[in-house]
Design a protein that fits this description.
The protein contains no helices and 5 strands. The chain is mainly β.
Amino acid sequence: MAYDSGYRRKGIILDYTSKGARLRFPTNEKLPPTVYLYARAVGLEGPARVVWQHNSEAGLAMEV
């Protein structure tokens, strides 16, 4: 994923649908409200809204 600032961060996709994904990251860094998700392997790429974050896991909803 990438932030609006250009900062990139890698994570692992735990679950996904066409509307969003649940990810786990190696650290507990707080995510910004919106990010750009690059998950081509599962067919998700584009702007996403951070719906929830708990420690190193986060739920993202793809923006339409």
